[in-house]
Amino acid sequence: MIEVEEVTFKYEGSGINALRDVSLELERGKIYGIVGPNGSGKSTLLRLLNGLIPHFYRGEMKGRVLVDGVDTREASVAQLSKKVGLVFQNPEHMFFSETVYEEVSFGPKSIGMDPEEIRESVKWALEEVGLWELRERSPWSLSGGEMKRLSIACVLSMKPEFLAVDEPTIGQDSLSKESLLEIFKRMKGEGKGVVIVTHDLEWLDDLGPDLVFVLRYGVVIGGGDPRKIFSDIRNLATNGLIPPYRYIVDSLLEVG
Amino acid sequence: MLKIEDVTFRYEGSKRPALSEVSLEIDRGEFLLIAGLSGSGKSTLLRLLNGLIPHFYRGEMKGKVLVDGVDTREASVAQLSKKVGLVFQNPDNQIVTLRVDREIAFGLENLGLPRDEIVGRIDEVLKKLGIEHLRKRSTAELSGGEKQLVAIASVLAMKPDVIVLDEPTSELDPFSSARIAKVLGNLNREGVTVVVAEHRLDLFAPKANRMIVISNGRIVREGHPRELLYRGDISLHGVRPPSVVKLARKYGVVGAQPLAVGELIVALRRGVRIDRS
To answer: What's the structural domain count of chain A?
Structure first.
């Protein structure tokens, strides 16, 4: 379990808190959606979960984050990466290996997995995202959707128990968005905790999250059952979010 | 006005052609929406329209592209840019100056226009896009959506006959995306020809009067967006009808072929009224 306890964080050099008094709990075997307008603190929240904050991003942090009871400040990022894998918005900016297989092996090697385990976990990760057949290809020869899945495999290969993903659907076409739905649902089924930051509520609705949190100005202003969150049309709209169409239609029909 | 005649194009170093035997005519005043999966050939098609292919991208090209009757191979990209303005996917890659008004002036200065004319055109496009307040802002501090509007403004200021956009909202949040779609709809009503490749059919299909679907480098469907999106078989090419279409099917109002949420609501209310009477 991940427990975020009353965390306030301010990036170095910034005048305002990126997060204010944020508390939430994330469990295995569930899918969480984190939504909010640009600059609301969504990405900052993700960086807290795997220790990038405070280990890499400097700033002032109050409160604490516990991953399975361990304070992230007391664990290294390498240790945390076995618990919480973070997939960035444009991870393809970081591909540097000649083959897909090598790219996915990099993470496990760098956290010191033994060779046998690496082979096994790389194969598993590539199969999970449907790229095993393409393992000898160059990452740069892949389509946008395949690159996105490769970036997920790179994180899965470290066998994290939580998968945290920043804006997975940005720039993706409809087939890619469908395959991402399948991957994340399967992860949940395998008992992993899946945390998705997104603007794309239509897609998030298709994913069927267990719980959705709404962020604004670094504060969690709502959290709960997705039906409750998505049907609050006015609240979503004032926060720069477009509710799933079926909820818009339902609400307009009720009014009419 | 734009005419693609039986074009096949293969990028240098690639085995497969990116486009195969594509023919397409685009008339003045149209709003053409190009749908298709990533890698289907949408960007290649757009690059043909302003001469980036074959002038910048190397490869083997068959067939020809005519812009107002002029073969793009015989015109320079600079000449073509006055006719066809291209806006790319990622606004960060298009902005070259530090301030919004300078950004818009940049292309105009390169056309060698007098100062008064440049200032006048900057005023005009800022107003047209509703971004007068951004005039003196630093381009570095703009949001993604604002950057994309500035990129569109820079292209519009050159007064091209056609504005061509390659997935202009793919890096943007839903509100900014909706704004871009609205702006393009308005421009089109004012007479600008718009050609846009997009995945966000929910936002762009209601604005378009014509749609094509590209798959594996070929145009596989062509027609009015209502007609194509309600026929259903575009799914074979990886293009999914937007949610409004799915909801219209669910509620049994496909006859009205709504594409925008507002149209769906109207259709539903009518449907409800008819049921009650």
So the answer is: 1
Position A24 in a domain:
yes
Nearest chain A CA: its distance from B204 CA (Å) = 15
Domain containing A55: what range?
1-75+193-256
- This model of the complex carries an ipTM of 0.79
User: What would the mean pLDDT of A152-176 be, rounded to a whole number?
Assistant: 93
* Residues in chain B, pLDDT under 50: 274-277
Tokens 């020869």 belong to which residue?
A141
How many CA atoms does the CB half-sphere of B23 hold within 13 Å?
Answer: 3
What pLDDT is stored for residue A61 in this prediction?
95
Q: Is A39 among the domain residues?
A: yes
Whether residue A45 lies inside any domain: the answer is: yes
Q: Is A253 on the interface with B (CB under 8 A)?
A: yes
Reply yes or no on whether the pLDDT at A256 is more than 60. Answer: no
Task: Identify the CATH number of the domain in which residue A5 sits.
Answer: 3.40.50.300
φ and ψ of A177, to 5 deg: -65, -35
CB contact under 8 A, A248 and B240: no
Structure tokens at B211: 């749609």
pTM of the predicted protein model? 0.87
With b for 16 or more beta-carbon neighbours within 10 A and e for fewer, the B22-42 pattern comes to bebebeeebbbbbbbbbbbbb
Q: What rounded mean pLDDT belongs to chain A?
A: 92
